[in-house]
Amino acid sequence: MRIAICPGSFDPLTVGHVDLVERAAALFDRVVVSILVNTEKAPLFTQSERMAIAREVFATVANVEVDAFDGLTVDYAVRRGAIAMVRGLRSATDTDYELSMSLMNRHLKPSVDTVFLPTAASVAHVSSRLVKEVWRLGGDVRGLVPAAVEARLRAMRAVDAPAR
């Protein structure tokens, strides 16, 4: 079985992530959406919320599962029996960063390749960082995130809204 991981913080999961995972699912027998536990970041969603969202979003994609990990991504990939890590590329900046990471990962674990998929043009402008910024400033994130994320963001805003 050809297993790949799609690692990231997925905070929040965006339509760009969905595009990447679905495309990876067409290339590999099993794809693991691998949610990084990063204690140095203050995430918008908790680890369990991000996992629940990803499971909801990918529930209809039979060969996709969701898991969490900490530590080196490449070590996690080996533990999962993955032959590849799938990464999306939106820009030259992404390419420079991801290439350096892939070379280091290859040095650490030559058995795990990195597969780069160029982002679909329709979602190339979408990033978790920008979605969070738009949302925090009161902007509309429809079309940038899956419905499951949008619903949770609306609920968060409703809780934070002052009583009228």
Can you offer a commentary on this structure?
The chain is an alpha/beta fold and 164 residues long. It is 43% helix and 19% strand. The protein has helices at residues 15-27, 47-57, 73-79, 92-108, 128-136, 147-160, and strands at 3-8, 30-36, 64-69, 84-89, 113-118. It has a five-stranded parallel β-sheet, with helices on both faces. It is globular and about 50 Å long. The termini are far apart.
Radius of gyration: 16 Å
Q: Give the biggest sheet.
A: 5 strands, parallel
What's the quaternary structure here? Answer: single chain
What are the segments in which pLDDT stays under 50 over at least 5 consecutive residues? none
Termini separation: 56 Å
Number of strands: 5
Output mean pLDDT. Answer: 94
Number of helices: 6
* Percentage of β-strand residues: 15-25%
What structural class do the secondary elements suggest?
A: alpha/beta
Question: Outline of this structure?
Answer:
With 164 residues, this protein is an alpha/beta fold. The protein has helices at residues 15-27, 47-57, 73-79, 92-108, 128-136, 147-160, and strands spanning 3-8, 30-36, 64-69, 84-89, 113-118. Helices cover 43% and strands 19% of the residues.
